[in-house]
Amino acid sequence: MPATQIDVAIPHQLMDELAAARLRTDELFAIVKSDSLYDRPIAERHRIVFYIGHLEAFDWNLLHDRVLSLKSFHPQFDRLFAFGIDPVGGGLPNDQPSDWPSITAVREYVAAVRNTLDEKLADALFEPNPPSSDGFPLTALLNVAIEHRLMHAETLAYMLHQMPLDRKIVYNEPLELSASPVIHRAIEIPSGTVTQGLTRASGHFGWDNEFESHRISVPAFSIDQYKVTNRQYLEFMEAGGYQTREFWTNGDDEDNDPNRDSDWRWRSERGVSHPAFWKHDQDQWLYRTMFADVALPLDWPVYVSQAEAKAYARWAGKSLPTEAEWQRAAYGTPDGEEREYPWGSESPGGNRDLGNFDFTRWSPVPVNAFPEGQSAFGVHGMLGNGWEWTSTQFAPFPGFEPFPFYRGYSADFFDGKHLVMKGGSARTAVCMLRRTFRNWFQPHYQYIYTGFRCVSR
Ligand SMILES: [Fe+2]
Asked: Can you tell me the distance from the alpha carbon of 301 to that of 368, in angstroms, rounded to the nearest whole number?
């Protein structure tokens, strides 16, 4: 074998991670029956075919001329597949399947991008001084490409989840419906400080919104030991939760908040009367997993929009935690130290007993299924088994600077209309379980693997 081929074959960790991430997304698209690839399972999102092209166009647009000195071979697709969409409050897309290129042309583009990038990356990564752009080394840009793809591996799962079962190639997933009985209680968290964000000097990879590091004080509060379950949420529904306007009203009576009635308006205009993953059938509630409809698993966490989570919290006489409170409950300790993960310093990659994450399952498990993953304060299930809503608007940390190569990644969402989520779901990759990772969505989006727990102050 010639020397250059031996070099190319050396397993470089980032190239392995990129290959593994591609496998994840390839596996997802393979779930969709071939006659359904131009479907739009969620009205606010593009058709599936867009995402097949998008993952490659993103990598190509990020890397080809910035660090690899490659010329574009299909500028039309580079632009067509460049950006996803997230319309807030109307403005749904109305394109037709015939507006998109053939699946054959898209798959040829995907293959050509991968081959061209891989050939060049293998050389560039082994140069004595690998290329960089705007002060960012090639390795940081590759992390951006890998994590972008893995984030889509999760958001695409949300999308495919909404497809009718007859549009998918169904996998017979074993479900874990119950563990030991769930006994709910609130855990007292004393006042203390939390560290948010990363320092640039650390050299650790993080997205732009994770910088800069700072500490904030958090007054004492109490927090639910477990996420709110389907059983608890059913009680809220049976108590008329969806029909009681006061649970859906933001702010005080005298408050002039323009968003005061936005949740109630959304609930009323959209006719929302139950979580999006639930389905009523012949006097019983069913739960729509990725591959089957099953009797509602009562001990699984409920997945709802932030508006629904807030309505439940008001009904219960409680609140949603702030981002800082959530972090304090997850990473704080009685002696004032902060942990890297809720359970300690062990990487979640090597121990499947710490939580429901990293693609091991498709579905949730009971909220008390992973006692080994509890935090120092005894709060369970903070990483995995569903993201958790906070009441904190997504906003920059002090010292925020957008990535010059992806200026809109976070900044486009600092609009007061998106809320921070922390934690992770069964479909969150292990690299994004780091303490500083922040996720965000608008408060009326129901299709995500996101639940909540309540606090009292
Ligand atoms: Fe994207």
From this structure: 10
